[in-house]
Write a structure and sequence with these properties.
The chain is 34% helix and 14% strand. With 191 residues, the protein is α/β, with parallel strands linked by helices.
Length: 191
């Protein structure tokens, strides 16, 4: 089974750094929408696939565009929400990386399923500043769940730091910020 990690398209929060990181709930830019539309021709989704999406607007918008006209399972999960990379215990979650409420996601993205059975703390705080050992335990549980699914592909629409964090665990080697995917970039990882 393959996991395909997809970084969201260009977001408004990246246009005027560092000030733009203070934008709450940033959307995709016009370029980000174009990038997400381009993913449709690169990634052959079908109804048997699963798409797991971070509960942040730019990832939800990317996944919505990517999965247009494909009736696959679309699951929103805080287990793939923004994560700082590398971790620094003194850093705080930036406004641009705050998770949307389940109600807002259900209202604005009704074709997506909210992952149930996770703690409310995960739905409010996410994994962004979670200590490394705690994240590793959650990540290993998530990866076991992925392996247990009877599908060939699981697509994960997420963020650069989150993708690197998962890849680092899966590959068993240290990655750096130089390994970040570009906007709307994607990479296959055997699970």
């Amino acid at each position: 089974m393959e996991l395909i990690f997809i970084r969201h398209g260009q977001g408004e929060h990246t246009l005027n750094l560092p000030e733009s990181l203070q934008i709450q709930d940033p959307s995709l830019t016009k370029e980000g929408v174009y990038q997400a539309e381009s993913l449709q021709s690169q990634i052959p989704l079908n109804e048997r696939d699963i798409v797991i999406i971070s509960p942040v607007r730019r990832t939800l918008e990317t996944a919505s565009i990517l999965t247009k006209d494909v009736s696959c399972r679309k699951i929103v999960s805080p287990l793939v929400s923004p994560r700082m990379f590398p971790q620094n215990p003194v850093w705080k979650t930036l406004p641009c990386d705050r998770i949307l409420s389940k109600k807002l996601i259900k209202d604005q993205f009704p074709s997506f399923t909210i992952e149930e059975g996770l703690s409310e703390e995960l739905w409010t705080s996410g994994i962004n500043t979670m200590p490394e050992q705690e994240f590793i335990l959650l990540a290993e549980t998530f990866l076991r769940w992925c392996k247990s699914q009877s599908v060939e592909h699981i697509y994960i629409v997420s963020h650069d730091g989150t993708i690197n964090s998962y890849r680092q665990i899966m590959r068993g080697e240290k990655l750096t910020r130089k390994d970040f995917l570009k906007d709307a970039g994607w990479i296959k990882q055997t699970c």
